[in-house]
Amino acid sequence: MAALESFRQLVEMLAQRSEVASVARQVDPRHELTAVLRHMQKGPNRPLIFNDVRGTDLPVVTNVFGFRRTIAESLGLAEGDLLRTMVSLEAKTLGVERVEDAPVQEVVKTGDDVDVTRDLPQIVYAEHDGGAYITAGVLIAPHPVTGAYNASWNRCQLAASDKLRVRMMPPQHLGRYHAEAEALGQNLPCAIVIGAPPGLMFSAASKVPFEADELEVAGAWQGKPLRVVRCKTIPVDVPADAEIVIEGEVIAGVREDEGPFGEFTDGYVPVMKNHVFRVKAITRRRDAMYHAILAGGTEDLNLVGVPIQAEIYKKVTNFVPRIRDIATPGYVFGCVISIDKQNDDQARNAMLAALGGYSWTKVVVVVDKDVDPFDAADVLWAIQTRCTPETGVYVVPGIPSYTREDVREVHRGKVGIDATAPISMKDLFERRRFPGEAEIRLEDYINANTSN
């Protein structure tokens, strides 16, 4: 299967498989849209298209990456081999293909015609959010000296007709770009891409080196050069097949109050000083779709979680060659590593490599290959039936993980749990199997006319 080259292709693929749920009735972008989305994510977790959002003519598309398998499919990869293949692709680049005519520039608004509070859906997600936010924007900027492109996910508060407030602090690469531009007394030209190609989405989420050009990394992800077009008002290249682009610059020496915002930890980031983005233009397709992501929802945790899984895979595979898979069930501050254990030291090696392999990771559970790392109940079963607390629980005190300023003290110390069975007792811990279970279709056995 070939990788998808646009957000639109992804939505079309999901629609062709009848996975997309369409909402015809009008919804209020303030809270109601999110309330519907949360019910969907707690239930069948299908992609949603809101066709009538109050205050905008743009349909809102969300939850396209509700399942990890969709991530694999969008990149043209097999889910069972996702992490290994992503790691191999991460070090590669493929030069961009430059075009003059681009779907994303079918409609162009500049100057006084620009009004982000009118031209974009004004989605307010959580109860105490400080206003409407762009949550599915990939920010693209060239390095002020080298010209290498960075792509990253950043929340953007819609502050005025031509102004956004953006969270982008070092050590995040985009924050470093702006700091270097600021040191030169320059604004940082920057574009916000909404409805980006899947390859760019994962290039923006991945942990590639600071020096890498992430437009070229996106081309490697999709196995074909990323089509780009030069912005109308700033010297920045953007994906030609995106849905919407906001052109502008991040102002040097200016910070304004931004927030509060209900972020992915399921709490609020308080009001703090953040960067200011001055809008110069909005370009889009004539029939553009607006991508929205609920911070901390299933789509967000997949977009964040898969690159973290890949980063941990890189570290662990140096010590444990037979990794079945790595999951981040529940939340991305921990992971579960399923291994085909060859000796009893490998579980501890995997645990320590993972705890040190990615800074946010503070809880690691290692399970045998017969445990599904994506099934939280199965993982808890392994902990309760195979872990020896006296020798299988490791605490590393003092080490920080999540370092957001106001909560960093809560995230000190790390924990590892060996929930694998001892090699010497392997036969004793063999799990039950039920012959024929995989072939059974329950509907063939249940009488549809029986009410009890």
Amino-to-carboxy terminus distance = 45 Å
- Gyration radius (Cα, Å) is 23 Å
Q: Please describe the biggest sheet, giving its number of strands, its sense, and whether it closes into a barrel.
A: 9 strands, antiparallel
Structure summary, number of beta strands: 23
**Uncertain stretches:** none
- Share of β-strand residues: 25-35%
Classify the secondary structure makeup into a structural class: alpha+beta
Question: How would you sum up the global shape?
Answer: globular
Mean pLDDT: 92
Count of individual helical segments: 12
Task: State the share of residues found in helices, binned by percent.
Answer: 25-40%
Written overview of the protein:
A hairpin with a 6-residue loop joins β12 and β13. The chain is α+β, with helices and mostly antiparallel strands. The radius of gyration is 23 Å and the shape is globular. The chain is 26% helix and 26% strand. It has twelve helices and 23 strands. Strands 5, 6, 7, 8, 9, 10, 11, 14 and 17 form a nine-stranded antiparallel sheet that branches. A five-stranded mixed sheet has the order 19-20-21-23-22.
